[in-house]
Amino acid sequence: MLDSLNCGGCNKACPSGQSCVNGSCGLHCELTSLTQCGGVCSDLQTDAKNCGGCYTACGADKFCSSGACVCNGGKAACGGVCTDTTTSAANCGACGAACGTNEACANSVCDCKPGTKRCGGVCLDTQLSAANCGACGALCAAGNVCTLGVCAPPTSDWPTFQFDLAHSGQNSAETGKPPLSWSWSRKLGVGRLKSPALAGGRLFLTGSSRFSTTAPIYALNVSDGSDLWSYNFGSVSSVGAPSVFSGTVYVGNGKPTTGNALLWSIDAATGAANWTAPLAAQWETYWAPIRIGDVVYINGGTYGGMYGINAPDGSQKFFVSLDQYDEWSPAYFGGKVYTFIAGNFRTHDASTGVVSNNVSFNGSGPGYSMAPVFGSSLAYLIAPPNLLAIDPNSHLAVWTANGTYKGTPAVAGDSVYGISAGNLIVRDAATGALKWTFGGDAALAYPPVLAGNYMYVASDANLYAIDVTTHLQVDHETSGGYLTLGSGRLIVAGADSTVTAYLLSK
User: Fold this and answer.
1) Residues 360, 340: contact at Cβ < 8 Å?
2) Could you tell me if 166 and 377 are in contact, meaning their C-beta atoms sit under 8 angstroms apart?
3) What is the DSSP string of 326-387?
């Protein structure tokens, strides 16, 4: 009756692992105070696969003790996750005891990360902090920038879309170069960021959330990303890209649910509004205005056009009717203002806005998101899918490059840079001959920018630095968006509302 080799009869052996009780083969876990779980006798007090009950498994980082899952190695269960509280910055010394900004956890104690110093109870990078530059309490003067622990005037500015009135994309005054080093990052929560402006050590940013009750412009200290001021335009259809000229920020807000769209003049240092100018509009999204002398130029009009607004007081100087498109910026070259809208390349009198010439270069793409770009003598336009070089004197196309071009090109020296099919295409500025290409992640989308011997280009997810002489990639960072170069920094304004600053090398 108990013989497992002859259980219930001669030569009737029980299967391996089973025993014979009262002439019947089986697990008979009860004989050893165990519990049958899935065909196995299990000790529910110690079995990590059946802890406290059948099929209650402990994770890989836990063991079973007295019928309960317990973290290995003295770790604590914080929020259900086994955590080493001696090193976790979110649970330092105990669950929920989080370290502060720029702090790390070591031996269950929060302390400043290497390279930072505690100033006023907060860990700061004194190499970049505008209020603690080089030492606690060493405040940089207004407009100065803290770089490597030294306060100094900014090395260069970036006042408008693609740097200058010609939208060239080249900051010839910036001497910084790769490799890049991460400096600071902030998420502003205003949707896809527009092309930023940078002047006097201040970075100006807007986003594209539509009809949000929070629609601000931010002024950040470019040294460390700290807040200088912000202004909330309230519930408006959009907030445009900013420009900075003569210590004044110019930005257009789209039409609110009631009232006018407005061009704003704001003191760059204080954030105080100087004046607003009404813009007849439908539901435009504005690109960066430009200022020439005492006149500010911006797109607008109920059925499309360009305004000239007097910079001293915001009064209207002129309005000229144009195509009904938004998201464009005028350019200035050789004493004239130029627009490129819906394939129409127009020359305007700078004083009156009157059109003196209009040439159509219609492509198959939309008429949005356009700006004419000027080199030393030619204008460069992307009329999707083509890239064109135009003589602004004869208004004739000098050359045309076929492709799937989109967006805005950049020009520096004898080369013009454009994005086609997610790749960077570099052509001879005079002839259009192909010079070289760069693929990156094959999703490049934002206008290239240049400083010194280096070009920077980005997708939504990646940033690349390229030596324009060797055509080789010399740096890569995992952030993307509109690029701005100035004050020894490369600023990335992302589609996810995150702005990131990288310090350029000297």
Assistant:
1) no
2) no
3) -SB--EEETTEEEEEETTEEEEEETTT--EEEEEE---SS-S-SB--EE-SS-EEEEETTEE
- Counting as low any pLDDT under 50, the low residues of the chain are none
Both tokens assigned to 127: 């190499």
- Give the CA radius of gyration of the chain: 32
Question: Who's near 334: CB < 8 A, 6+ residues apart?
Answer: 392
The pLDDT tens digits for 134-163 are 999 999 998 899 999 999 999 899 999 999
Do 188 and 218 touch, CB atoms closer than 8 A? yes
Q: What angle do CA 254, 194, 345 make, to 5 degrees?
A: 75
99-137 residues labelled b (16+ CB within 10 A) or e (exposed)? beeebbbeeeebebeeebbebeebbbbbbbbbbbbeeee
| CATH 2.130.10.10, domain 177-505, yes or no | yes
Q: What is the dihedral of CA 204, 210, 215, 216, to 10 degrees?
A: 0
Kindly tell me the burial class for residue 465, based on how many C-beta atoms sit within 10 Å of its own C-beta (0-12, 13-18, 19 or more): buried
Backbone dihedral angles phi then psi of residue 141, each to the nearest 5 degrees: -65, 155
The full set of domain ranges for the chain reads 1-32, 33-74, 177-505
d(CA 84, CA 82) in angstroms, rounded, equals 7
Say whether the peptide bond before residue 114 is cis (omega within 30 degrees of 0): no
SS3 at position 120: coil
One-letter amino acid at 256 equals: P
* Contact status, residue 405 vs residue 382, Cβ threshold 8 Å: yes
pLDDT digits (tens, 9 = 90+) for 179-204: 999 999 999 988 899 999 999 999 99
